[in-house]
Amino acid sequence: MKKIYCSFLFFSLAFFLSCGTPNDPESIIGGDGGYKIVGKLATSGYSQDVFVKDTVAYLTQGEGGLTVISVSNHSSPKQISNVIQGIKGYSKKIAVKDSVVFISAGAFGISVVDVIDPVNPNVTITNAQPKPAQGFDILKNFLITAIGEYGFQISDISYPFEPDPRGVTSTPGFAQAVLVTPDTSYLLVACGEMGFALFNISELQTGWGSYPMTDWIDTPGYAEDVVSHPTLPYAFMACGTGGLFVIDYSDSANVKIVGSYATGGYAKEVAFQDNIVYVTTELRGLQIFNVSNPSSPVRIGTVQTEYAVGLYVDDGYVYVADEKQGLIIISIP
Known about the structure:
Elements: H1 2-20, E1 36-41, E2 49-53, E3 56-60, E4 66-70, E5 78-83, E6 94-97, E7 100-104, E8 110-114, E9 122-128, E10 136-139, E11 142-146, E12 152-156, E13 164-169, E14 177-180, E15 186-190, E16 196-200, E17 213-217, E18 225-228, E19 234-238, E20 244-248, E21 256-261, E22 269-273, E23 276-280, E24 286-290, E25 298-303, E26 308-313, E27 317-322, E28 326-331
């Protein structure tokens, strides 16, 4: 009798859990908070990252290079062009300055693509330093690149088609992403297994030399990406299996973790808009958090996609680079 009762509990629990985690990619886990999938475009590669400018989305595609997509009609995105020839390695992160696209590819460095004519993109340089290229940020005429075990490197992009590599600064761990703070005084670095680091770049002039680290703090998981609050000294980090973490860097010599949220999935990329933080979590889709109180993130919605990796947010939409589904466009309520 005891065995029958245990079996009944087991199958009942299995049924309950299966009902709570839908497999339909259009479905919602834990409520969508009003965020809805409004458009999709399946692509030929494995989508990694996305940047949107005006009505055009630029999508890195792993071995598939770069895909350029019109999003003038969000419910019906259309491919404009795709460029593979000339782009070496596995295209990962993306940064855009004017009509120039920078693509990272790990040990294959950086590819630069002129997209002034989106129908006919032109690769101007490939396999370029710095290497191994991970995430980017742009400050005026400087491209700052996370370069894994070597830290970060600054390149002059006054002539953007051929970045001029300059100084390298060491970081704890393997630098995965970099972000200049809104006041341009500091650089936030997601340092992989070593968490978060803060660097003083207030004396950045020509990009040569290295820059002092003011403090760092370990975070659970693997620090993959970082964004900052536009007016307050808080950083929001995607930390892999650790989830979302909030860092207070108001005291640059004593940074500290003040908030966190276990996302369940692998927190990969993060964006901030109007006190809302968006996190891609691979198999657990896009998760959305209210961070009006940065020390206490509240999840307000989840939009399930198959394998959410890259992310871009504007005033009306969230654009997700999904490794299996391509580009997914989600409306903001």
